[in-house]
């Protein structure tokens, strides 16, 4: 069976493949149809890119200036893996006239190294540090598509959504936190058509595995971690096991993690069901099923967790408390258990979103405001769009697009006059959930 993540099968003619895929790309831009020989992974990426209105003939935006880039690099977990990337890919990139690139989980390039002449050529399409190369902003490309699909992938020439990138070929693999499984970013090798071989894809996959092993060697002993941001079903990592919890179990574990001293049955019921009348047996049945999954992690009388459970919610809160909104936003993968209607969860969700938005609005940093406005949960946030317009220089042509968006949202919400906050529901949008783990 042909590996669907490889750009070309052995013996394929790269010139002919470029010609046929370029015709398919033109047809897709014209009428949205995709035909062979376009691979399924590429077709799906083109559709995501088109849905996000990614530019098909522009350059990726630069989101991090020098100061923000420096701070983000220093705090990012992948900084510890850079020696591994350089050892395994550095000479390959330099000697083969390629580029080694490492991005964060939002697709922002944190390191771009390699052949000097190739770097200068790549600068013309903003393949530079600080630029955002996720699919939403740069269309189909190896690091962006590796993040979206959570799988190593090779993108060849005309398979790129953006025409300015179609002279390049790249291979990238996602990177995960070895303790929590959280997506950290991707490692990429970019160059000419000769990278469209099984060797380059295998190389970045092996490099990603080596980097994750390096991070695991320096990580704390396995404990208990709970990921609840941007996902309806929490991911619990306990003693090396990764458990995807159901929605009610996600709520229970989160609430107990926030109350280490424990909750009585009545207290937990109020947090879960509010004032609705609920038979005690209903909650006891949920807790019994949860205990079958997590074993000794769940204790009773009162209901509590047997050990501290770290949460990505707590991580973002700590970064906000430390006055580091860039790092907080980087760790914010979306609203907390967005589909949950449990009163206790809703209070936590609203409190975190409110604190994060307050920090962004108070700072007035156009980079932060722009980053929030480009997320699925921030794209309809009128107050942020208004603040972004105010944060940009008066004569900057970049004010035009935010101002137009703010005017559109104001009209949609039936508001007139100055800055106004959009309805809260508009700030918790439906968005793509993480892949099943």
From TrEMBL:
Domain of life assignment: Bacteria
Amino acid composition bias (Low complexity), ranges on this chain: 419-429
Region annotation (Disordered) ranges: 418-437
Ranges of residues in domain GAF: 116-214
Listed Pfam families: GAF
Record's protein name: GAF domain-containing protein
Species name: Streptomyces endophytica
């Amino acid at each position: 069976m042909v590996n669907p993540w490889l750009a070309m099968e052995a013996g394929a003619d790269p010139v002919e493949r470029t010609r046929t895929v370029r015709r398919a790309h033109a047809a897709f831009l014209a009428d949205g149809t995709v035909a062979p020989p376009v691979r399924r992974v590429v077709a799906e990426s083109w559709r995501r890119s088109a849905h996000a209105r990614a530019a098909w003939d522009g350059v990726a935006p630069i989101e991090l200036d020098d100061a923000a880039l420096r701070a983000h690099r220093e705090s990012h977990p992948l900084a510890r893996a850079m020696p591994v990337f350089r050892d395994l890919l550095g000479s390959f990139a330099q000697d083969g006239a390629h580029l080694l690139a490492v991005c964060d989980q939002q697709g922002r390039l944190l390191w771009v190294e390699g052949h000097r002449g190739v770097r200068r050529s790549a600068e013309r399409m903003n393949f530079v540090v600080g630029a955002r190369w996720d699919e939403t902003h740069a269309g189909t490309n190896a690091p962006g598509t590796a993040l979206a699909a959570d799988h190593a992938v090779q993108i060849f020439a005309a398979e790129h959504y953006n025409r300015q990138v179609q002279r390049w070929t790249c291979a990238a693999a996602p990177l995960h936190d070895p303790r929590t499984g959280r997506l950290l970013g991707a490692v990429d090798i970019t160059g000419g058509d000769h990278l469209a071989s099984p060797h380059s894809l295998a190389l970045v996959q092996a490099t990603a595995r080596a980097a994750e092993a390096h991070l695991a060697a320096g990580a704390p002993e396995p404990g208990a971690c709970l990921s609840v941001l941007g996902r309806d079903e929490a991911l619990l990592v306990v003693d090396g096991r990764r458990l995807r919890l159901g929605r009610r179990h996600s709520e229970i574990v989160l609430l107990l993690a926030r109350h280490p001293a424990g909750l009585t049955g009545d207290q937990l019921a109020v947090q879960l069901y509010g004032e609705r009348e609920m038979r005690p047996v209903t909650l006891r049945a949920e807790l019994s099923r949860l205990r079958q999954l997590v074993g000794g992690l769940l204790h009773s009388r009162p209901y509590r967790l047997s050990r501290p459970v770290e949460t990505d919610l707590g991580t973002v809160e700590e970064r906000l408390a430390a006055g580091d909104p860039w790092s907080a936003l980087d760790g914010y993968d979306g609203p907390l258990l967005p589909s949950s209607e449990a009163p206790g969860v809703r209070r936590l969700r609203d409190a975190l979103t409110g604190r994060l938005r307050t920090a962004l609005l108070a700072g007035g940093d156009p980079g932060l405001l722009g980053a929030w406005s480009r997320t699925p949960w921030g794209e309809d946030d009128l107050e942020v769009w208004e603040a972004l317009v105010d944060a940009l220089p008066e004569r900057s042509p970049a004010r035009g697009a935010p101002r137009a968006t703010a005017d559109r949202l104001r009209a949609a919400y039936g508001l007139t006059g100055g800055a106004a906050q959009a309805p809260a529901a508009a700030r918790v949008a439906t968005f793509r959930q993480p892949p099943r783990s």
